[in-house]
UniProtKB/TrEMBL annotation:
SUPFAM superfamilies: GroES-like (SSF50129), NAD(P)-binding Rossmann-fold domains (SSF51735). Pfam families: ADH_N_2, ADH_zinc_N. Keywords: Oxidoreductase. Residues 3-47 form the Oxidoreductase N-terminal domain. InterPro entries: ADH-like_C, ADH_N_2, GroES-like_sf, MDR_fam, NAD(P)-bd_dom_sf. GO terms for molecular function: 2-alkenal reductase [NAD(P)H] activity. The lineage of its organism: Eukaryota, Viridiplantae, Streptophyta, Embryophyta, Tracheophyta. This is Uncharacterized protein. PANTHER family: PROSTAGLANDIN REDUCTASE (PTHR43205), PROSTAGLANDIN REDUCTASE 1 (PTHR43205:SF7). Residues 93-185 form the Alcohol dehydrogenase-like C-terminal domain. The keyword Transcription regulation does not apply.
Length: 200
């Protein structure tokens, strides 16, 4: 029998025996994507207190992607005004937020993405200073040097592999890397990249 997909969602409580939730409450968190669900362990559900914003925000900026971007950028990277920031997979739910946080912090920010449309979106809608299509770059190291001639202060890592290897040789002294994901490596039997990082 097919099982429903599980993921982030917004739901309305239709009945509850749990002391934290009552009928009519709106919640966000880890749910099944189906019309009705029975949730026996609500540890990953959070009551929505503010309904003045669109409920979809709780699966984005006010939910897991927003928290991941905020903590990964501000707590891990501790940005300073004027620093140089690179975000890989920058058009994703987390990456686009990191880029906007970087701009709000007064940083120069460049993102990479895999299509011209995503690159255009990063620059026109999300305010990135520059963006490039990594698929069109023969040499990632040269691409990074083109956008960061003085090096990278902060790298928000979503890709891994060859991109990470290229970034490591372009990091500035006291640079910081927040590792959020390594999408290029998830389906490989043996990982690639970061072969020459030791001793640089």
């Amino acid at each position: 029998m097919l099982q429903p997909i599980e993921g982030l969602g917004v739901a309305k409580v239709v009945d509850s025996t749990h002391s934290n939730f009552k009928k009519g409450d709106l919640v966000w968190g880890w749910t099944k994507w189906e019309e009705y669900s029975i949730i026996n362990d609500p540890q990953m559900l959070f009551k929505i207190e503010d309904t003045e914003v669109p409920l979809s925000y709780y699966t984005g900026i006010l939910g897991m992607p927003g928290l991941t971007a905020y903590v990964g950028f501000y707590d891990i990277c501790a940005p300073k005004k004027g620093e140089y920031v690179f975000v890989s997979a920058a058009s994703g739910a987390v990456g686009q937020l990191v880029g906007q946080f970087a701009k709000l912090s007064g940083c120069y920010v460049v993102g990479s993405a895999g299509t011209k449309e995503k690159v255009d979106l990063l620059k026109s809608k999300f305010g990135f200073d520059e963006a490039f299509n990594y698929k069109e770059e023969q040499d990632l190291d040269a691409a990074l040097k083109r956008y960061f001639p003085d090096g990278i202060d902060i790298y928000f890592e979503n890709v891994g592999g060859k991109m990470l290897e290229a970034v490591l040789s372009n990091m500035r002294l006291n640079g910081r890397i927040s590792v959020c994901g390594m999408i290029s490596q998830y389906n490989l039997e043996q990982g690639d990249g970061v072969n020459e990082a030791i001793g640089r």
